[in-house]
């Protein structure tokens, strides 16, 4: 299905149209639309409440009202949710084309027309997303093919176009997350990255194979991939701004296309979900999907460590020691704490090769972060308060909330090894599993480097239903958050 924007003067007719309504106000309608007498009468316009009618008009035969609640309480989340409700109703209408009309009064509601149209556009595209997977595709002649967003004015147009691009990037991230492990191997992630580079002349892509990684000394990354028969890939995407760059940001993503745990094998229950262990990498690829459409004044590097954590005859054994690209040795006490090993070398690579002003990494690193903050929040470990505040505000704005978690000296101390510099897990009595992961990673970040680790194991999957996001599969977390961070930086 295609979602597009058009200036409202072009809204001459549509077989099905959704209108937003605030409490106590009559909706402004496009020219030529009328509603049956009394239809608005006792519609209270509670948030996300709906009412549909046949109008008898030729131009606009079917109209859906979607409530937004009280005008002064409407915010970005409310708009995204209401738009998602409209998109789902459009899909269920049986019409092949449908429209969503945003009047001038509605466009003024939350943060002005650019912001409002961005939120509505995001809600439509995100709310319409459904993972098709490998289900046999029955041709449905009544499926919605075209959804048009109508509003007036240049800022509205700018906001809508940005919203559409960001949401499409987020859906791209979700699609990668949801794909079964056998449909998305590390090499497939690399192909997606290469394809992204063809979407914009400002984006380039380099892929390193295992031999190249070995040459660079990435022994920790390779200690994970050696247990898989599907070769690992190190993906490096670069975005160069058109004008002068205002700084350099490098984002590293954990790209475990499947995490079976290795020899420290995971229990079977829900193991199929471990295909989303590449969500950090998917967020980075999604970021570059967005950057192809939305300009930022920074040089951005995206680095994804793509591999599987499985078991063959060569798989790493508990107690094995391996050496990272920065010379640090690690005793691998638990092969299921693999993400930090892959990230360790990717972080070293990112600092050595791209020398970023700000280094970020996103990873489904620990089950413990789900215990700590659940599925609605990302645990973040920023190195300074400025970065923390920017990320918390960005997360609030895009509906991908971030919560700072502690990274204290005691946790770092606990990661020190006896037979190697470090071990990849702390003592069980220590608790704070997500912080332990962050503490391990901190050994691979140079002193003074601005950095933030995002533990997205909860937020990436299985979030509560908020209409545009949530449910049993991938949320697409990170892509819109990173773009919002770049916008606010
Ligand atoms: N990919 C997992 C973390 C995870 C768990 C993500 C559940 C999403 C849902 C990670 O590689 C892992 O296995 N972590 C271990 C670390 C432990 C061995 C120290 C964990 O969380 O149990
Ligand atoms: Mn694991
Ligand atoms: Zn993992």
**Helix count?**
14
Bound molecule kinds, no repeats:
ligand BES, manganese (II) ion, zinc ion
User: Class by helix and strand content?
Assistant: alpha/beta
The neighbouring-strand order within the major sheet is 7-8-10-9-13-17-14-15
Mind sketching the topology for me?
Elements lengths: L1 E6 L9 E5 L28 E5 L7 E6 L8 H17 L4 E5 L2 H4 L4 H17 L17 E6 L2 H25 L7 H12 L5 E6 L1 H6 L3 H7 L7 E7 L8 E12 L19 H13 L7 E11 L10 E4 L5 E4 L6 H16 L3 E6 L4 H6 L4 E5 L2 H14 L3 E3 L4 H6 L7 E2 L9 H10 L7 E6 L23 H10 L1
Parallel strand pairs: 1-6, 2-4, 2-5, 5-6, 9-10, 9-13, 12-16, 13-17, 14-15
Antiparallel strand pairs: 3-4, 7-8, 8-10, 11-12, 14-17
Helix pairs in contact: 1-3, 3-4, 4-8, 5-8, 7-9, 8-14, 9-13, 11-14
Features of the shown structure:
489 residues; alpha/beta; Leucine Aminopeptidase, subunit E, domain 1; Aminopeptidase; 8-stranded mixed β-sheet; 20% strand; binds ligand BES; binds zinc ion
